């Protein structure tokens, strides 16, 4: 994986504090597991089954959408849920906000969007790992705190509409509706406590007693029980939650609970991560091998092996593991990013040349992963390609919201790259976005 990489995101989700930036935890295995589990309800909603479900690095309970391109769920909510159906209703509910047009009706005006038209919304909603000031994003584009709050909040009417649609999506997917009632009970009664003590989900998704009663009646109408075998949903839910908890909680906690996993390979994976976090890469690889014996062609286990070896400074072996993962999951941008990174850290002109197309494919496949730009910039600089290096650094700064720095680097790229070339055009896009952001 991408070292369960924390990626700062500049869409300024309204948690407890206005203008608070959030960060994403990027991992190809977790994202694949969530999307495997989400696919039935997303398809029932009429959305692409490939709509990404991304994990926010926050232990509070929240889920949200900022556009039609992805669904975001806090790590805390994933860890709090106890069944696939509970998390599937969270996804179905957020999908309903997309399908019912609640996103496009928010208080982000066309004027604000036009300020970043050069690079599109992507540069305003995501930024690179480890970059500077996170309190930028929409605030830097001139959106007042009150507008931000309204942008990320839903009305009671929208919530009722999303409940009805979400329940319908669950029923159409054969998931059943019991999970909707179970997950909603987590938040029950919070409207009676002070706002500062409420979970963020309750603040942005009003949860009245009347709404709970309507939801209960609606769920009963469609039928609480699932239809068909939902074992695959259970497997992927447990895998996503198991891996997430293994990285976020203490190794001792993980070892005490690994045997509770629904599948033996998940248990071995969790134990391998615990061993890895105790800085024993050899022991971690040995434990992971037991999971791989059960699922020998699982690309995500090869990706985890690559990470363990990379962080154990076994660079050549790490590259081989990432290469195998990329072969088994062709085109996955997070795996390609890790493969490219493993090549860049080793250096050498030939290896750097080979890393460039890998990293460029990763960049094209996932605009949210700014670490790819960092590695590309390093590779281009070492290969004495200053124009391309300046371009990637400019895009890196733009993702971070540092538009002044982005403008300086983009101008350097324009001056060095062939006039009219694709790279030159991208540099012009950064320049235009920087100018618009300063207006």
TrEMBL record:
Task: Answer whether the UniProt record assigns the keyword Signal to this protein.
Answer: yes
Q: Which InterPro entries match?
A: Mito/Outer_Membr_Metalloprot, Peptidase_M48, TPR-like_helical_dom_sf
| UniProt key word Signal | yes
MF terms (GO), sorted A to Z: metal ion binding; metalloendopeptidase activity
Please state the span of the N-terminal signal peptide per the UniProt entry.
Answer: 1-21
Residue stretches making up the Peptidase M48 domain: 32-217
Top-level taxon: Bacteria
Give the record's keywords alphabetically: Hydrolase, Metal-binding, Metalloprotease, Protease, Signal, Zinc
Give the protein's cofactors. Zn(2+)
Q: In its UniProt record, which GO terms are filed under biological process?
A: proteolysis involved in protein catabolic process
Q: Name one Pfam family in it.
A: Peptidase_M48
- One GO term of the cellular component aspect? membrane
Give the cofactor binding note.
Answer: Binds 1 zinc ion per subunit.
Query: PANTHER family of this UniProt entry?
Result: METALLOENDOPEPTIDASE OMA1, METALLOENDOPEPTIDASE OMA1, MITOCHONDRIAL
Instruction: Report the sequence similarity comment from the record.
Output: Belongs to the peptidase M48 family.
- This protein is called Peptidase M48
The protein's organism comes out as Pseudooceanicola sediminis
């Amino acid at each position: 994986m991408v070292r369960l990489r924390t990626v700062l995101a500049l869409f300024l989700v309204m948690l407890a504090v206005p203008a608070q930036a959030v960060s994403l935890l990027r991992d190809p295995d977790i994202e694949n597991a969530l999307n495997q589990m989400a696919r039935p309800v997303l398809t029932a909603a009429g959305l692409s089954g490939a709509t990404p479900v991304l994990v926010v690095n926050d232990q509070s309970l929240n889920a949200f959408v900022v556009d039609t391109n992805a669904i975001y769920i806090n790590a805390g909510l994933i860890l709090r849920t106890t069944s696939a159906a509970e998390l599937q209703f969270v996804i179905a509910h957020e999908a309903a906000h997309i399908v019912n047009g609640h996103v496009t009706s928010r208080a982000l005006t066309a004027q604000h969007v036009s300020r970043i038209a050069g690079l599109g919304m992507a540069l305003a909603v995501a930024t690179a790992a480890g970059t500077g000031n996170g309190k930028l994003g929409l605030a830097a584009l001139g959106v007042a705190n009150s507008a931000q709050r309204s942008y990320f909040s839903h009305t009671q009417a929208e919530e009722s509409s999303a409940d009805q649609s979400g329940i319908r999506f669950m029923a159409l997917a054969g998931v059943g509706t019991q999970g909707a009632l179970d997950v909603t009970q987590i938040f029950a009664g919070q409207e009676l406590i002070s706002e500062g003590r409420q979970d963020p989900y309750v603040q942005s998704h009003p949860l009245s007693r009347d709404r709970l009663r309507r939801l209960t009646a609606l769920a009963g109408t469609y039928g609480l029980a699932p239809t068909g075998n939902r074992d695959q949903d259970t497997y992927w839910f447990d895998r996503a939650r198991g891996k997430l908890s293994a990285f976020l909680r203490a190794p001792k906690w993980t070892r005490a609970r690994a045997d509770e996993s629904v599948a033996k390979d998940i248990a071995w994976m969790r134990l391998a991560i615990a061993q890895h976090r105790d800085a024993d890469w050899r022991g971690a690889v040995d434990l992971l091998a037991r999971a791989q014996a059960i699922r020998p062609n699982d690309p995500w286990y090869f990706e985890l092996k690559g990470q363990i070896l990379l962080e154990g400074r076994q660079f050549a072996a790490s590259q081989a593991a990432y290469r195998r993962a990329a072969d088994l999951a062709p085109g996955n941008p997070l795996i390609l990013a890790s493969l490219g990174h493993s090549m860049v850290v080793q250096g050498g002109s030939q290896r750097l040349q080979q890393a460039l197309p890998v990293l460029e494919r990763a960049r094209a496949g996932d605009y949210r992963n700014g670490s790819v730009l960092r590695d590309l910039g390093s590779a281009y600089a070492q290969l004495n390609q200053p124009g391309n290096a300046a371009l990637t650094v400019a895009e890196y700064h733009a993702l971070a919201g540092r538009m002044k720095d982005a403008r300086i680097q983009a101008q350097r790229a324009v001056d060095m790259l062939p006039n009219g070339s694709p790279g030159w055009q991208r540099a012009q896009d950064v320049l235009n976005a920087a100018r618009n952001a300063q207006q």
